[in-house]
Amino acid sequence: MSAGSLVRRWGIWAVIILAALGALVVGANRPSHPTLEQRTMSLASQVRCPVCGGESAAQSQVAAAVDIRTQIHQELAAGTPPRQVLDNIVRAYGTSILERPPARGIGLLVWIIPIGVVVVGAAGLALAFARWRRPAAAAAGRGGVMATGPGARPEDEALVARALGDGTAGAGDGTAGAGDGPGPGRAGPVGEGGE
After folding, report:
1. What CA–CA distance (Å, rounded) separates 145 from 157?
2. Which structural domain, as residue segments, surrounds residue 127?
3. What is the pLDDT of residues 27-67, one digit of tens each?
4. How many Cβ atoms are within 10 Å of 66's Cβ, its own excluded?
5. What is the total count of domains within the chain?
6. Same domain membership, residue 95 and residue 44
7. In terms of domains, do 95 and 50 share one?
8. CA-to-CA distance for 109 and 17, rounded, in angstroms?
9. CA gap 137, 142 in Å, rounded
């Protein structure tokens, strides 16, 4: 390995290490206590806008969302703990106002039902795959030849015919029954007005 490629390789690693150290220093120097405005917006992002769909109270600019942000700001400024502020909003609007429903009581169903659906679906697929594999495994046990169709052994066809009870197999020789009456591929009596 040449000296130039060695310097280049170590230079790349040095840049990566310096970038990681710089990110750690910047992260460590961030203020440990968020401002009142940051705390207000953080709580408002956990609350839905009561009149607009798909937006939080932090994102929306409608009057109802602005009122919620003002209420949060005032309560936090008065020293109310964040959990209590959210509880006050839930008391006024109901639990549906929260972006993430609480994982207790009826709100627990919102978390459990999707998990249950996934588990039941996976179990159903596993059972279906197991059932689909059984005929293939049975065919493999017979040397890969299916009981009926081209290449099937006459005794297998006879077993299938007896199991189905349709009488299509002959008496032990594996051929179709040979009767004198009309059947598939045979011409029946010519009716009046024929030919």
Report:
1. 11
2. 110-164
3. 666 656 889 899 999 999 999 888 887 888 888 889 998 99
4. 14
5. 2
6. yes
7. yes
8. 46
9. 9
